[in-house]
Design goal:
Layout lengths: L2 H8 L32 H11 L3 E6 L13 H7 L10 H11 E12 L9 H7 L3 E7 L13 E7 L6 E6 L10 H8 L1 E4 H5 L2
Parallel strand pairs: 1-2, 3-5
Antiparallel strand pairs: 2-4, 3-4, 5-6
Length: 203
C-alpha cells in the first residue's frame, strides 16, 4: 500500500482493494481478550479473511508475529496436528511460513521478514526440511542492524516461490541501513552472491 493508505488504515479508515487483502492478525492485542487467542480478531478482519480464502492468492508479503513457544502451550496440540513444521519449542512465526505457503497458489510469490534463528536452532529443523521442496529465491540478512526500534531480532527477509526446489539462490548481507528510502532493492542487487540451497535446508 502507498503510505497515505497505510495512514488511513491506522486511523480506522480502511480502503478496499479488489485484489488485495489487508489483515492484521493481532488487531485484538490491545483488547481485553488474551493476545494468544488467535481466533479473536475483529468481525471486520474476520470477514476479510473469509473473502480472501475463496481466492487464489498470487503474492503473500508479511511480518508474522514473533511469540516465544512458552506462551503457546494451549495451542501446541493444534499446531502439532495442523503443521508439518511443528516443533515443541518453535516460535509462532514458523507456522505462519507454512500457512502462507498453503494459501499461496502454484507459482505464487512469498516474502516474509523473520528472525534468523530458524536457520540454526533445533526447532527450525522441520521448517528447513519443509523448505527443501520450495524455490528459495533470495535471503537478505540484516544481522544485528536495528531494523525494528523495539528489539534486536536479527531479521532476514526470505523470498520464495511455490514451485520446485532450486539448487541455489541469492544471498545478501546488509551492512548498513543508510541505503536511502526505497533503495533496498538496489543495494540487494549490488551485493548479492550465490548460496547453495543445501547450506540452508540440509541435504
Amino acid at each position: 500500500f502507498p503510505s497515505h493508505d497505510i495512514c488511513k488504515q491506522k486511523m480506522g479508515e480502511y480502503e478496499e482493494f479488489e485484489h488485495i487483502c489487508f489483515v492484521d492478525t493481532l488487531d485484538h492485542a490491545a483488547s481485553n481478550i488474551k493476545q494468544m487467542d488467535l481466533f479473536a480478531m475483529s468481525a471486520e478482519n474476520t470477514q476479510r479473511i473469509h473473502n480472501q480464502n475463496d481466492r487464489n492468492i498470487s503474492v503473500i508479503i508479511g511480518n508474522p508475529p514473533y511469540i516465544r513457544q512458552e506462551e503457546l502451550a494451549e495451542l501446541k496440540p493444534y499446531f502439532n496436528h495442523r503443521f508439518s513444521t511443528f516443533s515443541g519449542t518453535a516460535d509462532l512465526y514458523v507456522y505462519f511460513v507454512e500457512l502462507g505457503m498453503d494459501l499461496l497458489r502454484k507459482d505464487g510469490s512469498f516474502a516474509y521478514i523473520l528472525p534468523n534463528k530458524w536457520m540454526r536452532a533445533g526447532y527450525g529443523k522441520n521448517l528447513r526440511q519443509y523448505l527443501r521442496k520450495l524455490a528459495i529465491k533470495r535471503i537478505v540478512d540484516f544481522g544485528d542492524l536495528p531494523v525494528f526500534d523495539e528489539a534486536t531480532t536479527y531479521p532476514r527477509i526470505i523470498q520464495m516461490e511455490k514451485a520446485g526446489a532450486v539448487d541455489a539462490f541469492e544471498g545478501v548481507s546488509v551492512r548498513t541501513l543508510d541505503f536511502g528510502l526505497g533503495k533496498l532493492i538496489s543495494y540487494v542487487r549490488r551485493h548479492a552472491f550465490v548460496v547453495k540451497t543445501c547450506i540452508v535446508t540440509g541435504k
